[in-house]
Amino acid sequence: MKKQTKFFVVAIAALITIGSIVFVSCNKEKNNDANGNLSRGPEKITLESPRNANNPYDTIGALHNILMDYCREKVREYYMDYGEWDVPAADDIATIVLANHGITAPYLNYDYITSLFADSASCYVDYASTCGASTIEKETVYNIVSLVRNLVLTNAPYSEIKELIVNQEAIVLQNQLLSSNEKFDILSATSVLRHSLHYWLTNNGFDAGMSLPAKDDDPQPTDNRASVWEIALADLGGALSGALSGASTGANVSSSFENPVPVIIVGAVIGAIDGAVKASCDKATEKAKENQTQQSQGGEQ
Predict the structure, then answer these.
(1) pLDDT for 51-70, tens place per residue?
(2) DSSP track, 16-49
(3) pTM greater than the 0.85 cutoff
């Protein structure tokens, strides 16, 4: 128990320091951009807060959402400058945004994310196992994913989805069969899933302001829950595999990070955040490009 408590304390210390770097950097950028003319798309939908104070690693999900705001902004700038964008461009943008906020994980490159996406059939659990996920981690994550998926795709309200995830996180915290490292991996991923679902249900993907306009006589687009689920699930996979890979190989953080935190924990935290943001940016772009193609084909008929 002492070892597990120490892990929690050290991991939280890492998150606090990394979080402070991101929050300070984000506040500076928001002040610099306050008078900008960049279109930010339609008003956001208001949903219940995604936070869960009982998850000791909930900052990871919160940072995912903060950093995604900057990825969305940079993707829109790229689109306005060049008239198009694609997954490799989105991946580069996410890499730059993360690095600008003191988060770098060179091993989480485009090839890594592409390999991750290829495992969507297993909900990215099989890929996580290649990164070091234990059997109990795989079973736990897959069980949570299965439960959440049913709610998301049957149009349950976000409050109900959040409640389910929070309840599952409580079970994970109480599970004596899980090590502190395993709890970190799982709770980081569930935090990202909870925050990511909130983010993409609120922001409606990358389409706003960047998709081809629909013809007046075209039917209205159907509910985008399926696309939101695909993005959020990829984010969970990115967080889980990123945490596992970061713990095993180590990751870099800006020189502002001065706390004497073990590299294995720093690597896991950085990996979880980096993997979640890159998976989110890349998968959201992939879904938006699919939507563009469908709209274009519809307009040619």
Answers:
(1) 999 999 999 999 999 999 99
(2) HHHHHHHHHHHHHHHHHTTT------SPPPP---
(3) no
